[in-house]
């Protein structure tokens, strides 16, 4: 968001549209007409676009104004919900944890962790966000998340974050049952079919590139770049696509035989999965309970916790 745009700009713009009157909007916001007109002009200057036209018939949105209105209203609504949530949490005294989970963790680990949290601390309220590594670490760094679980990224993406290793996970290559490549599972043949490939921002991309180099394979020309588990599961089952993805994302589908893992050595793609926090973040009771639930879940799933204790690195 442009740093010059303030909440008052969005409030003035949306209220003018709501009231269809500059005068009425000014009354609602306890402003003078010149003040609200000046605020709207500031917003239009910042955006470099005229948002409203005014005539005897009232207020009319320009095409740019119609486009921007939805986002302005959504932004103000989200802010109000956030303030209401803080107020409600204060009244209830509820413990909260805002957790980010990379796709492999969201699919494999988080359902079990949530069940464990509910068992040991039902009063702990969890908010879970998923997405690619860069998106979640950005939210963590901005204070929008308390903790992220996922694969360690490149050094520049881990700035000001600490990393506590939990287990190792590798990338796998999966296809639908009966896929032609299963007759001769050689990575050098993947160019014959569409490939679902990690996007440049994905934490697993460098590991996949390393795997292909080891097998003498160039970047697949017919590739769809995404780490969306929802898309990959459906598209791989319905097509001849070959999918490079973290093992945790498809662990259940492989176990159930819905997807088939190519018998290719992928140990080279192993990377640490761990807890990421801001380096300056204070430990809370809620975070202690959550981490306890994570470690118990790892024991149940039989995932290796290096050394049986935290291996923490500040980056």
From TrEMBL:
Residue ranges occupied by any HTH lysR-type domain in the UniProt entry: 5-62
Keyword entries, A-Z: DNA-binding, Transcription, Transcription regulation
Domain of life: Bacteria
Keyword Hydrolase recorded: no
Keyword Transcription regulation in annotation: yes
Annotated transmembrane regions: none
Family according to the record: Belongs to the LysR transcriptional regulatory family.
Identification of the protein by name: Pca operon transcription factor PcaQ
Name of encoding gene: pcaQ
